[in-house]
Design a protein that fits this description.
It is built from five helices and 17 strands. By secondary structure, it is of the alpha+beta class. It folds into two domains: 163 residues, no CATH class; 68 residues, no CATH class. The strands form four sheets. It has a six-stranded mixed β-sheet with strand order 2-9-12-13-11-10. Strands 14-15-16-1-17 form a five-stranded mixed β-sheet. A three-stranded mixed β-sheet has the order 3-8-6, with no helix packed on it. A hairpin with a 2-residue loop joins strand 10 and strand 11. It is globular. It starts with a strand and ends in a 5-residue tail after the last strand.
Length: 240
């Protein structure tokens, strides 16, 4: 099966990018980053979606700070239980809370791109993708906030959430994982194409990296057939 990186079209300027993607993401909270004596201070790009009520009053999630590996391990299970997610998804620096954004200008495109791998789609594109039976994908409602000129209640968007993951951790040697903090070094000898070769889902993340959403040729065909706007695909070989 051929896979593609799901991304935005090429923009000539930053102004053109902003014209097509006029939404500012709002981060409710983050897990602490980790301060490792071997790797240094680092944080993931993970996004853990949960209701705002789940994090209200959790002061340690409201301030950006770093903690040591021992402290991280001690509280990792607590946060997994609090947020009702698999412990494997609890990574340092993860964004926590609902998908939220501020609409800064009118737009008519089917998709908007906020950060790498963070793609929000309108009702039309959501309906098309759902009715096509695309696997490995779900949709998280986005809470949109007004600005002085835009009524956000007139806009409906959903965040693409990819549940399927392909990992090569089983084939990594012990030196690929930090013995202090458990960080996985993704700079292994396996290309993205190699890892995707055994995948059967339409949408997938590689090594749990949320910055790159990979989609099958079937997804590409669905997007082209409905003439989806402000969303594009690049064949995987061209992205490595």
């Amino acid at each position: 099966m051929t896979y593609y990186l799901l991304t935005h079209p090429e923009y000539a300027t930053d102004q053109e990018y902003w014209h097509h993607n006029p939404i500012q993401p709002i981060v409710s909270a983050r897990l602490p980053s980790i301060r490792c004596p071997v790797c240094g201070t680092w944080a993931s790009s993970q996004r853990i979606r949960c209701p705002q009520e789940s994090i209200v009053g959790r002061r340690e999630l409201m301030t950006f700070h770093a903690i040591g590996p021992k402290e991280w391990i001690a509280v990792q299970e607590e946060w997994a239980a609090l947020l009702d997610v698999d412990k494997a998804l609890i990574l340092p620096g993860s964004e926590v809370g609902p998908a939220r954004g501020r609409v800064c200008a009118p737009f008519e495109a089917d998709a908007v791109h906020l950060l790498p791998g963070q793609i929000w789609v309108n009702r039309r594109l959501k309906t098309v993708m759902q009715s096509s039976g695309i696997s490995g994908l779900s949709f998280e409602p986005v809470e949109l906030i007004d600005n002085d000129r835009i009524n956000a209640t007139q806009v409906e968007l959903w965040e693409l959430v990819v549940s399927a993951c392909i990992a090569s951790h089983e084939s990594m040697d012990i030196h690929s994982v930090c013995t202090s903090c458990g960080r996985v070094n993704r700079a292994d000898n396996h290309s993205v194409s190699d890892k995707l070769a055994r995948c059967v889902r339409d949408c997938v993340l590689v090594d749990r990296n949320p910055n790159n959403i990979f989609v099958s040729s079937r997804v590409k065909e669905v997007l082209e057939a409905c003439r989806a706007t402000n969303i594009a695909t690049k064949i995987v070989g061209a992205t490595e």
